[in-house]
Structures are given as C-alpha cells and as structure tokens.
Amino acid sequence: MARAERFLQACRGEQVDAPPVWLMRQAGRYLPEYQKVRARTDFLGLCKTPEWAAEVTLQPVDILGVDAAIIFSDILIPVEAMGMKLVFDDHGPGFPDPIRDEKAVDALTIPDPQDRTGFVLEAIRLTVKALGGRVPLIGFAGAPYTLLSYMVEGGSSRNFENTKRMMYTRPDLVHRALEKITETQLRYLRAQVAAGARAIQVFDSWGGHLAPDDFREFAAPYARRILDGMKDAGVPRIYFVLDGGTQLPEIQRCGADVVGLDWRTPLGWARSVLGERQAVQGNLDPCALLGSQDTLRRKVKGLLDDNAGRPGHVVNLGHGILPMTPPEHARAFVEMVHELGARP
Ligand code: CP3
User: Which end of the chain is more exposed for a tag (fewer CB within 10 A), N or C?
Assistant: First the structure.
C-alpha cells in the first residue's frame, strides 16, 4: 500500500512513510535485462513494439524496487509524428532533414496522438495492466524549446548555433514552430493520461543553455502552456530543466506541481526559493552511483538532510542514469533512500 501511493503523495506535498524514489532513464542500457530485450531490435523498434516497451518499463520496478515506473519511449517520438524523419544511431538521435526555413516549419503537422503514436498509448495500457497498482506510471514529453533545438540542429549540439541564429534572425518563425510543437505535446500528454499515466514529466534538457531573456521568451511560456493545459487532467505535473538552477524563479512561474532539479542545484536552497507550494524532485549526481557504497550512503544522507524532512520531496538523480552504472549500485541507492528517509 505504502509503495503504491508514496510517489503521488509526495508530488502533492503530503507526508509519506518513506521518500519515494525513481531514476530518470531507469529503463536502459545499464541493465543486462534491458540489453537482452534491446538485442531483438533497434531502439525505435523497441519503442514501437508495445509488448516490449512495456516489458522494459517494468524491469526497474522489479529489479530496483523504485516507487514509480516511467513509460519507455523517447521525447523525439512525437516529433517524428509531426512529419520529420528520425534516426537513432550509435551517436544518438538525429533528424537528417532539420528545419531551417519557413517551408520546413509550415510543413510540420499537429498529429492525432492515437493515429501517429498509438504504440505509446498501447504500451501505457499494457504497462498499467501489468503493474496491477503496484506503483504509478509516469508519462512524459519533451518541452517545446528542447524539441525545437533538436529539430533545428538535426541532433545533439554543443552551442545550438543554428537554433539561436534562427531565434535572433527569424523569431516569428521560431514562435510559429514552438506553437505547433506545444499543441502536439499537449494532445500527446492528454492521451497518455487517458491511457493510464498517473503523472507527467516535461523534460527541458536544453533549456539551461539559454540566456535568461531567451529562456523567458522561447522556453518558459511554452512549458507553462503545457503545464497549464494539463491542470484539469488531475495528475501531478513535473517540470525538469537540466542546468536550470539559475532560472529557478522563472521555472517556478511555469506552475508545475513538482520542480525537477539537476545535481548542480542545492536542494535546500531551491526549496527556499520555491516555497511550500511546489514539491521538488532530485537530485543526486548520476556519477555518485559509480563510487563506493560508503560514499553513496553519505551522499544520500546529505541529500535527505538538505531537504530537512520537509514533505514534497521525490528522490531522483539529477539527470539520467549513466550506461556504465552497476545495477547493484542503483538498487542500493533505492534501498538507502527508503531506509535513511523512513519516518519512525
Ligand atoms: O527514463 C526512462 O527510463 C524512460 C525512457 C526515456 C528514454 N529517453 C529512453 C532512451 C526517456 C524519458 C527519454 C527522454 C529523452 N530522450 C531525453 C530527455 C531526458 C534527458 O536525458 O535529458 C532526451 C534529451 C532524449 C533524446 C535521446 N534519446 C538521446 C540524446 C539519446 C542518446 C543518448 C543516450 O543516452 O543513449 C537517446 C536514446 C535513448 N533514449 C536510449 C534510451 C534507453 C538509449 C538507446 C539504446 O538503447 O541504444
């Protein structure tokens, strides 16, 4: 009973028996069990086969004992559904035909979630059934600015020069693209909740690269529109901006129920900026899972002390788990959080 509820309770700022914990990218390459399923197909094939996507979504629930599952998919899946060719290779995701002009922006469509991403919704339904109420399932989407930067750069980037050039030369075009992306993500997230997701997370992985005025113009308003638009869906809404520490006041105004923090942001300080009404999620350095158990224990204790027993803390890493992480360290992390954070 406790395990089934503590994640949602913490998201709502309620007192819990022990802090809930899950790990961003918890279904992934560090798990041999994932590798085995992944060997059957390529990454997109795995995302698009609901039975297999459900299978790997469930793995960390059983293996690590986490308090929430997150549906196995990728933030770029609905971008493919908007009409862009998407490939995954050894270097990660790529769009071979990035959007760089008006014609490309106008060609983007706002897809119907069931028509174009029905496999994700089916994976959610299968996962929820298999979970049988053990823990809630989290749905997710990319934040509009982060998705836009992938679409304009064509992949990961160090300086985001194409995206920023477009922002500084054709802001009208950038806003037009962001509008379409926002509407797509909103429909996609609502469909995920209808299929059984009990919380949603919006990932703004590249938002932290923006100057404050650009974050205010190109990232925050669109994230806020998604979060506002999900309010009546009745599920906790988490907003995670990687390297967003210095934008915290702006992030707060986006109105999420839970603010995700990366490891560079002091948790206690973030709570004092955010106040009582927003819960926080995070924020152990993913590299802490590579060290000794003694160090890990000290780090977990430090993280819980930083929160000082306040309700509304979902424990997580400060970014995705790294592929070289020993699975037993991830399991030890989950156990330590439950043990050291238990209320007498
Ligand atoms: O958290 C989970 O377990 C759910 C699954 C999930 C994946 N991607 C699976 C994945 C989630 C929530 C994502 C989100 C995602 N995807 C983000 C936002 C979070 C973040 O990390 O900042 C981003 C930026 C992407 C785009 C993406 N997908 C990149 C840059 C890469 C390559 C780098 C990498 O870590 O491999 C991917 C591939 C990817 N997405 C893998 C997985 C398990 C590895 C693919 C494989 O199995 O070969």
Answer: C
